[in-house]
Design goal:
Structural class of chain A: alpha/beta
Oligomer: heterodimer
Strand content of chain A: 25-35%
Shape of chain A: globular
Largest sheet of chain B: 9 strands, mixed
Number of strands of chain B: 33
Number of helices of chain A: 9
Chain lengths: 376, 393
């Protein structure tokens, strides 16, 4: 896999994630007890054999940089090929604020020119999949495609978030995309795009130059759709048969975590042979003190649990004191639930503290978010 | 190589024969401990946290697992340009080569390694003890006392003095008498197997010890008594805190159980003195509806559908519905099938306890299920029994 590199864009619109993305990019959002969203695309790339990965950052990228560090945990700390964090910067043409993926790629064209790989896998960071891109690459070569897009037929993914380039398409019998719609009121095309795109690096640079010259900012709408419509580019669709989630709202975030309480789902997402790597903390194992009552829950290392935990995801270093009850909730790292406090349908961000006897019951459809470090 | 003030030499060649089948294919320092650690994580993390960044690990017995585990040393921040961790197996020199004959001989065979760093002091460590210790504080003590060798000592209960090397000291901490496993001890200060030598002195004594054909080339038996006999500055450094030699099946089980006490006798949650370990990269552990985890230490990757009480579960352990795990130590990736009951037992890595098995007893010795052993459904294992894997090499 010397001839392919990865590039991850982390500047998606995150308004609907509210407090959760106030202090971080979607890519840096803690999920599944011990991971961040970006661990999934980066690990997929690494498990595919990719050794060179660029991460384009936009806003609040401090926590993302802190998380990725030198890329050591992903074995991406080589000399020639490695993890490169690409923060925005001021140039004559650009003030460092990207209006879309095309802007971001254009700003980082120098980096892309310097890379030596023939192919590139370009992704955004709000999709969660764990896969091996080798089959997609084989398909790309077989079909002699210019561009291959990953798609899913999962009905749960047929949702449109206006302004986020929710993209749907149909293919001919050969798998070539013949029609594409972006942000429709109701999708009519059968396949839903997962934002993973495979093409030659030189072609990407060429397409970006062209689109920028025409004043386009968005990749799907500005680059791919016109070229699919006029038939000048062979764009193929490749189906991802595994699970996929899109994290665009608090509900998406909550649902993804809750889905992982199903052993079958967990078995698929964390299948053996495809480990998901993440930054390590060297916490001690979790301690269950006395008759802690834990049921249907995921618990990471470093916790001390004396109370009740039901249908919840508990991150590293959490404290749940005696008499406390946590139900249907997501409790991020180092949060604390003190004695006799009660939580239902809540998302506790990092280091949040619920004081003794506090009671927070959220509606299941709209979980309460307690922001990072808040003490209630 | 740049000069270093102090270089650590970690003796990790011990077979640990009293651990039976647990150490048949693995050196004792590589044994899993405490849910997510291996024994060697403790001295290595102590070095890292003490600012000692050159560690030679002397291996000899079944080194594969240990070598792979240490790797580049990155889990302990010991993958450095100037220094780091070095695995030092015995090697052929000139016409002959030989195994490490004793603890002192092992260091003697690696004088060349130590000299590369031109250190003033050498810290000699055992690779099979569980403790947290600031070696830098001990080094400061050694320098203050202008000692030739400083030995860390721990006050042990008087009735146990017969198991240790006992130091008799004067009021300034200088050792006046050293007795190996005395019948009638005058002091209860036991050697912890942690030494700091002034390197020039150590080198001198190693060479003399080597020249003596009658010597068994051991620090405790030969080198320290010789230094004492020649009136060298031998000092005892008092250590307080948790320290455990995990030399036997019982003590390995006991020291794991110690971690379940409230508060933990050795704080593994100390953010300023973390114990580092290589991480297998598994998702958080899962506790199913109807399952129970009481007074238990559990790490990532476990899937618990049964009942777990008073136990230590390592990464990736599976406990099926209806299974009971009581006062047990269950090492990585082992599986306890439905309806099995495991009590006062050490279940080694990758072992499978079949459905309905009855392993261990509420009293008596600790049962051991060896690495990769597979127990057929309904097998009964009595207290103190050791079951080895069927496939052997």
């Amino acid at each position: 896999m010397k001839d392919i590199m990865g590039l991850i864009y982390t500047g998606e619109n995150d308004a609907r994630l509210r407090e959760l993305t106030q202090v971080r990019a979607v890519a840096a959002l803690p999920v599944a007890g011990r991971y961040r969203v970006i661990d999934f695309p980066v690990s997929s790339m690494v498990n595919t054999g990719i050794r060179n990965v660029g991460v384009i950052t936009q806003k609040n990228y401090h926590s993302l940089m802190d998380h990725l560090g030198s890329g050591k945990e992903w074995d991406l700390h080589g000399k020639n090929n490695r993890l490169a964090i690409l923060p925005p910067f001021l140039t004559r043409e650009n003030i460092g604020v990207y209006n879309g993926l095309v802007d971001a790629l254009q700003s980082n064209a120098n980096y892309l020119h310097r890379c030596r790989q023939e192919y590139i896998i370009l992704t955004t960071s709000h999709f969660i999949i764990n896969t091996d891109f080798r089959d997609m690459m084989r398909f790309h070569a077989e079909k002699d495609a210019d561009v291959t897009l990953l798609y899913t037929n999962d009905p749960a993914m047929r949702r449109v978030t206006q302004g986020s380039e929710s993209t749907f398409f149909t293919t001919d019998s050969n798998g070539r995309i013949v029609g594409m719609e972006i942000d429709p009121t109701t999708p009519t095309r059968e396949h839903t795009v997962i934002e993973v795109c495979l093409l030659k690096r030189e072609l990407l640079l060429h397409l970006v130059d062209q689109a920028a010259a025409n004043g386009q900012h968005e990749f799907m709408r500005g680059v791919l759709q016109p070229l699919i419509n006029d038939g000048s580019l062979h764009v193929h669709g490749y189906e991802h048969k595994g699970r996929v989630w899109r994290i665009q709202s608090v509900q998406d975030y909550f649902q993804f975590n809750m889905d992982l309480l199903d052993s079958r789902v967990r078995g698929e997402l964390f299948s053996r042979g495809y480990p998901v790597y993440t930054k390590l903390r060297d916490d001690m194992p979790t301690r269950y003190v006395g008759e802690a009552a834990v049921t249907n829950s995921l618990v990471a290392d470093g916790c001390v649990i004396e109370g009740k935990v039901i249908n919840s995801v508990v991150f590293r270093g959490v404290r749940i004191a005696k008499g406390a009850a946590v139900r249907n909730s997501v409790v991020m790292q180092d949060a604390e639930v003190e004695a006799d406090a009660e939580l239902d349908c809540c998302i506790l961000d990092k280091q949040a503290v619920i004081r003794s006897k506090g009671r927070l019951i959220g509606p299941p459809a709209y979980p309460i978010v307690i922001a990072k470090g808040v003490v209630i | 190589m740049r000069k270093k003030q102090c270089v650590a030499m970690l003796l990790a060649g011990g077979q640990g024969s009293r651990l039976g089948i647990l150490t048949k294919h693995m050196a004792k320092p590589a044994l899993p401990f405490g849910g997510k650690y291996r024994i060697i994580d403790f001295p290595l993390s102590n070095c890292s946290n003490s600012g000692i960044d050159v560690v030679g690990v002397l291996t000899q017995y079944q080194p594969l697992e240990l070598n792979a585990y240490i790797g580049s040393g990155s889990p302990w921040d010991l993958d450095l340009t100037n220094g780091g961790v070095f695995v030092l197996p015995p090697y052929v020199k000139g016409k002959s080569g030989e195994w490490y004959r004793g603890t002192a001989n092992a260091i003697c065979q690696n004088i060349g390694f130590v000299e590369q760093f031109n250190p003033e002091y050498v810290l000699v460590l055992a690779g099979d003890h569980i403790y947290k210790m600031d070696y830098n504080a001990m080094l400061t003590y050694h320098i203050q006392k202008q000692a030739d060798v400083t030995i860390a000592v721990l006050e042990v209960p008087w009735e146990e003095t017969g198991r240790f090397g006992i130091m008799d000291t004067d009021e300034w901490g200088r050792v006046v008498k050293f007795e190996e496993k005395p019948k009638k001890a005058k002091s209860n200060k036991a050697s912890m197997g942690v030494y700091i030598f002034t390197w020039s002195k150590l080198r001198h004594y190693l060479e003399r010890d080597e020249a003596d054909p009658k010597s068994s080339n051991d620090f405790g038996k030969n080198v320290i008594p010789m230094m004492l006999g020649e009136n060298q500055g031998v000092y005892a450094y008092p250590f307080e805190g948790y320290w455990k030699d995990v030399g036997t099946v019982e003590s390995l089980w006991e020291s794991n159980m110690d971690l379940l006490q409230q508060p933990m006798p050795i704080n593994l949650d100390d953010k300023r003195w973390r114990i580092y370990a290589r991480n297998p990269g598994m998702p958080p552990h899962y506790i199913a509806p109807g399952a129970l985890a009481a007074n238990t230490l559990m790490t990532e990757g476990c899937e618990v559908f049964g009942e777990v009480r008073g136990s230590v579960l390592f990464a990736g352990v599976q406990v099926e519905a209806g299974a009971q795990v009581l006062d047990a130590v269950v090492m990585p990736r082992a599986k306890i099938a439905r309806g099995a009951k495991v009590q006062r037992t050490i279940v080694a890595e990758d072992a499978v306890i079949g459905p309905g098995c009855l392993v261990g007893e509420p009293e008596g010795n600790i049962a051991v299920i060896g690495p990769g052993a597979v127990l057929a459904a309904g097998t009964v294992v009595l207290a103190g029994e050791q079951i080895e894997a069927g496939r052997q090499c």
